[in-house]
Amino acid sequence: MPEQNAIRPLLREAENIEELARQAQSGSAAEEGYDHDLQKRYRQWYEEALFVLPEGLSSRFREQYEGSLTRPRIRQFVHEPRKKWSLYDKVPKYLKNHGPWQYPFEKCFLEPFQEQRHILTVLLRRVALEERAVDPFELLTTVSRRLPMAIGVLGRTLRGRPGLPVADEYDLQRMLHALLILHFEDVQPEETTPSRAGGSYRIDFLLRREKIAVEAKMMNRSLRRTQVRDQLVSDIFGYQRHDGVEGLFALIYDPERRIENPAGFETDLNDPSSSFPVRVVVVSG
Questions:
Q1: Minimal CB count within 10 Å: which of 46, 73, 160, 254?
Q2: At CA 155, angle to CA 150 and CA 156, rounded to 5?
C-alpha cells in the first residue's frame, strides 16, 4: 500500500491538468501550446497514478483512459483535443449541442477524469485509515504503561470517600478489564482452552477480533520472578491450543519492584516475529 505522500501530489496535479484540458479547446490553444503540454503532463500523471494504484482500482482507472470507438474517453481527447467534428455543419441545429469538436471536453475528458480523481481519493482514504490503524500489541502496551497512573487516581480518597485499591491479582484483572473494554470492541473474560493432555488453561481475557489472549499477573511476596516466567512459558504453550488465539499479551504488575531488571525480563520472553507473537510488559507502582 502506498503512502499518503505518494497520492496527494497526484491529486494536486490533477487540478492543473484539468485546467490545461479545458484550455485545449479554447480559441488560443493552438498558439499557446496547450495541446503539447496536456499530452506530456497527463501521460506522466497517468503513469505515476498506475504505479501507486492496487490492481482492483487500476483496472477502473485504465477504463476511464482507454474508452472505445463508440465511447471515446481521455485517450482520444488528449491525443486530438482540437479535432473537428466532421458532421457539425451537416446536422440539424438541435444536434449541435455536441459542439464543433470530435471529442468534446465535458464528455470525453472531464467526466472520466473526475472518475479517475475519485479513484485516487478512495485510495487516499484507504491509506489514511490503514496508517491510523493501531497495532493491538502497541495499544495494549500503551494501556499497560499507564495503568499505574490509573491505579493511583482510583486509589485516592476523595471527599471522604475511600478509593478503589488494587490489593491483589483479582483487583488488577477487574481494572484491566475495564480498560480493555474502552479500547477493544469484543473482550471475553475467563476464556478456557480446550482440554488435552496436561489439562486446560484459563485465559484472563480474549480479544476476539484481534485473536489475542491477555494475561494479568501481580507480583507479591509469595511469587518469585522465576515462577512468573515459568507460568508465562506454560501459558504460551497452552494458549496455542485455542483456535481463536494467535498471540499472547502479558501484563506483569510489580508495585513493589520485585523484578530487578524488568527490561531484561521482557526481552527474554518477547517474541514478536514468530507465528504466535508474544509481548510481555512489566509495570511498576
A1: 160
A2: 110
